[in-house]
Amino acid sequence: MASDQSFPASPVTRLPLALALSGLAGCADAIGFLEFSQLFMSFMSGNTTRCGVATAHGDWESAMRVTFVIALFCFGAFLGTLIAAWARSWRLPVLLSLQALLLGIGLVMPPGTHAVPVQAYPIVLALGMQNATLQDEAGRSLALTYVTGAVVRFGTGLANLILHRPAASFWIQAPLWGALSTGAVVGGALQIRFGEGAFLVPAGLAAVLAGGVTILTLLRPGSPLVAGTAPAPDAPADSRLVSVVGTAT
Predict the structure, then answer these.
(1) Among 21, 84, 134, 164, which is 20 to 30 Å from 144 by CA?
(2) What phi, psi does 88 have (nearest 5°)?
(3) Could you tell me which CATH number the domain at 11-219 has?
(4) What is the pLDDT of residues 186-224, one digit of tens each?
């Protein structure tokens, strides 16, 4: 098995895609946080804390509201990983197209109620799926929708600069944080100006990315730009490959 297990294999596309998707997640999260009474779309650590506080106060409606969102986000990661294994070299076009579709569905869904914000559910599902889209050189999912993993890996990478050398993915961690933060600023500003219609921006960005990788996959099938040698995201290194780099055309 090749030592590079990333997806896609080439940093020429992997790094820009990671930054664009992280910015998309930050934008959608900020819009959802403001639109759905401080309910996070992608930051499940924050939702978990909110669930704990609600439970401590006996606010069962709020606790169940947040718990369902956490479960849905987890299901998105589960579903995205299965789809990645099924789609193989078409993993990027399929996953990004589904994310664009789900974000678009969120725009036209009925708003629901405070306890059951159904409009948020397709967005949460899309962002959960997003975490199965890209992998670093070690086959680990890139932390695209939350900053804790990026901050931790950046901190440990700084230590490894002194002790030995950092992992190859160390260098993208700070830019990922910056992209997510920038996306959150943009999302907050858009929500203030356009309300729920602001979700059109992350949906549109997902559609543009999906279109771009679809064209690239058609023009360069098997190219490291859109494929890689990788097991399922976060699977053991000796797991069955879900995509193999072919000869670029």
Answers:
(1) 164
(2) 55, -120
(3) 1.20.1250
(4) 999 999 999 999 999 999 999 999 999 999 999 998 889
CA pair distance 107, 110, nearest whole angstrom: 9
| Domain chopping of the chain, boundaries | 11-219
Model confidence, pTM: 0.90
Instruction: Quote the pLDDT of residue 1.
Output: 42
